[in-house]
Amino acid sequence: MFQYEKTLQYPVKISRPNAKLAKMIISQLGGPDGELGASMRYLNQRYTMPLRELQGLLTDIGTEELSHMEMVSALVYQLTKGLTPEQLEAQGFADYFIDHTTGIYPVSASGVPFSVETLQSTGDAITDLSEDMGAEQKARTTYDNILRLADDPDVRDVIRFLREREIVHFQRFGEGLRMIQDKLSEHSPYPNNPYAFNTSFDKSCFKRAMGR
Q: 19-209: what fold?
């Protein structure tokens, strides 16, 4: 059960609409490394995580990614609010406007709609946590690219906050990966190489490692 608070995790207050920036930023809503994909990835992976600590980690971060979706959507909404169709066209937003006017729709900066093909849930803790670390770094790179192109201080302030959270998530997933590796190494026939352990083929070893 989620408890919804009617406030953004970090304030979004854009003083100057800019549809060109909105088209870039929307990639972090529906792009291949965006917040929608991150939340779906983590909230689905959590069910097969073998440790309650890891289930909680994925629930916490997956829920926070939902709040980041709100922030990115608020950025896009405020950056296009009040602009005329002519202004939107002049600022490179015409193709999006034709399909969605200025409604929020999850697409990448290149206009490709969101797809679950960009995320994975394998049921293997090491595989999933490794993907999660990669996902956070790819999201951080996207925010870096936005910062390279965005000159609006109101936008840059929010993007910096989101970028910092990607770094924190990467670190927390790294801690979770080390936790599962340590558990498995205690009972694995390959104590120095937890990656060699395959939970699908040695369930008895896995159960001992997880205390089951």
A: Ferritin (1.20.1260)
Q: What is the pLDDT of residue 2?
A: 77
The type of residue at 108 is S
Residue with tokens 């996207």: 142
Residue with tokens 């939107």: 88
Contact by Cβ (8 Å): 124, 19: no
CA–centroid distance for 153 within its chain: 23
Cα distance between residue 139 and residue 10, in whole Å: 18
With contact defined as beta carbons under 8 Å apart, do 182 and 129 qualify?
no
Predicted TM-score of the model (pTM): 0.89
State the Cα–Cα distance between residues 15 and 192, nearest whole angstrom.
Answer: 55
User: Mind listing the pLDDT tens digit for each residue in 62-74?
Assistant: 999 999 999 999 9
